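As described in the Methods, two query proteins were run sequentially through the folding procedure within a single session, without resetting any intermediate state between them. The first query and its resulting structure tokens are shown here.
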Amino acid sequence: MDHINGDLRARREATVWQRLNRILLILLVIAIWLVIVSLFVPPYKKLMQSRAEIDNLQQQVNEQQNLLARQTREVNLLKTDVTYLETIARDRLDLMKEGETIFRLEPGRTKPKPGDSARR
């Protein structure tokens, strides 16, 4: 009878150790996975920041290209289109043709709001 109880006790201890070994193995795999993930998170964040910066810079490049295209078009018009040159000169330099009268309209003034005088 003692022999049977000893066998049962040995089997129980063996299954307990097997379970502990499995748990330890699972914890070890989880720890290794966490280390690997922690090694890749900072470079991934930096990559995302770099992509956002690239998108921002690309937008600035596109805006500058549009501005350059507009200015190039205006320079070409000023060099080649006499009517456009005349219009710009008359508008910006207040030039006029002989016998012509220029009327300038000022932008409408907004009426003060009822509470504005109390604030001043």
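Immediately afterward, the second query was submitted; its sequence and tokens are:
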Amino acid sequence: MFDISDFIATTVVATAVIFIFFWMKGNRTKDVGRRYPPTPSALSLICALLRGGMIVMPDHFMRSAEKLGPVIAYNFGGR
């Protein structure tokens, strides 16, 4: 009635279809315009505020711009 070779073939095909689905989904979401500018860590901003307050913030942003480029994003909260 139900042969073991049919079961193995069905399992292999189902596994391949699931693998291809997840692979295509992963490739599709990487480069669809969702790239954000480089972001320094939030800890560096907090440390700069603790180190000298608003007086050292321009220097902090200038050093970040030298390291990461002219466009920098700071995320406050979730993306």
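Residues 44 and 60 are 9 Å apart (CA to CA). We note this only descriptively and draw no conclusion about the first query from it.
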